[in-house]
Amino acid sequence: MPGLANSQKLSDSLQQVLQKRGLQVLNDTLFQDAYLQVISKFQNNNPDSALKLCNWLEPFCRKNKSGAQLAELLRQKSIALCSRGRYAEGLSSLNEAKIVALENRLQKILSKIINNEAIQYKNMGNFKKALELYEESLQLKRQLQDKKGMAATYGNIANVYKNLYDYKKALETIELAQQLFS
User: Fold this and answer.
1) N or C end of the chain: which has fewer CB within 10 A?
2) Sign of the torsion angle spanned by Cα atoms 118, 83, 106, 65
3) What does each C-alpha distance from 172 to 32, 63, 85, 136, 147 come to in angstroms?
4) Helix, strand, or coil here: 149?
5) Is 18 helix (H, G, I), strand (E, B) or coil?
């Protein structure tokens, strides 16, 4: 798979550049945000590289005690772990991310974390737990007036209903998402 090999080379090159520049750069939260964006780009095509980058960045986020970056890093780490079928580790990472988000009152990140929890439970076949978590996430997104996030969550809820063969509820839920933008 040439795409994976190229992603691994990019990951290794990025780490070499960062190490040559000096670790003090990683104390900058803007730099950590940029690094988290790179990790996010790796999630779909190379979760192994995303996980490697998460593990490399994690000590710096912990040292800086930046709640937003640490919560997002732990969320990204969980995505990579769960995509590799390592659900227990992924859910553990999400639980830690949730604690960090709650301690720092990071509502938007918290809604994403809860959404990711729901996705993992859906992937494990626990549809009841997934629906509970999606409803919790939806409630936060309503408070934040995050229409885009609400629509995405409604789509996820509809997908769970589809998996439960409840096509009527799936359609009703999609219609709720559409109403947000009409």
Assistant:
1) C
2) positive
3) 40, 46, 31, 19, 17
4) helix
5) helix
Structure tokens at 162: 């589809």
Cα separation, 133 vs 131, in Å, equals 5
DSSP per residue, 80-98:
HHHHTT-HHHHHHHHHHHH
Classify 4 in phi/psi space as left (phi over 0), alpha (psi -120 to 50) or beta. alpha
C-alpha 11: how far from chain center: 19
User: CA-CA distances (angstroms) from residue 111 to 127, 129, 131, 166?
Assistant: 18, 16, 14, 25
- Of 131, 142, 143, give the one whose Cα is nearest residue 169: 131
Tens digit of each residue's pLDDT, the chain (182 residues)? 344 455 456 555 655 655 555 545 555 677 777 788 888 888 878 888 889 989 988 888 888 778 899 999 999 999 999 988 899 999 999 999 999 999 999 999 999 999 999 999 999 999 999 999 999 999 999 999 999 999 999 999 999 999 999 999 999 999 999 998 87
Is the separation of the CB atoms in 61 and 69 below 8 Å? yes
| Closest-CA residue to 94 (of 68, 69, 120) | 120
pTM: 0.80
Nearest-CA neighbor of 162 among 113, 110, 127, 120?
127
